Amino acid sequence: MRFWAPGLYFPFLLLLVTVSCRTAEWYTAFISTAYLDPDTNMTVSANSESGRYGDSSPKDSVQGVIGIPRANRDQLGCDPNTEYFISRSGEPWIALVARGNCTFKEKILNAAKKMASAVVIYNFLGTGNATVTMNHIGTGNTVAIMIGNSKGMEILELVRRGIPVIMSITVGTRHVQEWMSSQSVVFVIIAFITMMIISLAWLIFYYIQRFLYAGSQFSNQNKKNKNNRKEAKKAISKLQLHTVRHGDREVDLDIDGCAVCIEVYRYRDVVRILPCKHVFHRICIDPWLLEHRTCPMCKLDVIKALGFVVDAQENVEVVIPESVPGNIPVGNSDGALEEGAGAETSNFPSSPTFESLQHDDRLMEEDEAASLIEANLENQINSDSSSCPIGCPDTR
Question: What are the alphabetically sorted keywords of the record (predicted)?
């Protein structure tokens, strides 16, 4: 089972953000002004890309003389009956009004009723030369632009002084701007949080399932290992045990040594004799066989050699033979292992390990008792010799 849900969520979220984005298109306007300075009797002209066309305005070029509302206190142009002061009558003219107090649409329609060729709206006081895109659907073919407050106040003062100002408006640069509405942002955030909650729930479910599966596998493997070790112990208990004594034909105390601990055999060491005729200390070879099952020297599988069948895929199945080959001498190489069940089985111990150990312990106790008796007898003789008077005959 793979955790694939977030991999599908993130492309979908990216698509959702892309669809939610909107594009806004707007155009700048080149503003050219010209007037005759009465002080110098010279024409002053200026040209700058300082205007912005309205959203619903035709993107056309317009030229005319500037006209302003006659009421000095009301330069907003919101009153439908507003009269405009035009320095040159009979020519195309452009209305100059201030922003505020009513919609852009009302200002444009009121000026258009007075036959204005275009409407120029200057921004609020304190905004400098900043402009915005005006929304004025339903104003027809009247050209409408916005200019900055500084530019608008400059032109307004010239007209108030009675100086005719000629303005020319031409289309400037096209701009495309991407933006997201507040509703789209909220929708995307909610969708993102929902996907994260679903992903987190799926992740928790996935890892719980994985943990339970791993736990069951570990439990099964642990049970299998315990069964294997249990059956391996049973197989090891079938191996021959021997206590080393002086004069043993199986073990030479001066030459033979354990290949596991690299130490020579000593008197009364307990050893195991494997089916391959190799001899090791019992305390050395038993842990080795539990882990490796093979002879350290020839790599013979001791468990299989004793007739135990182990299936690695399932629990250990044990087939205990009715008779096990017994007492394989170290020096005997006549292939007793290949003879199988037909070999002689008279002397091989078939009891568990602890019974063999008890037998060896009894032998060791008897040897110790005999040694103690001999030592006491020798001490008695020595004591008798030392207590003899000076005139005792020499028995030597």
Answer: Membrane, Metal-binding, Signal, Transmembrane, Transmembrane helix, Zinc, Zinc-finger
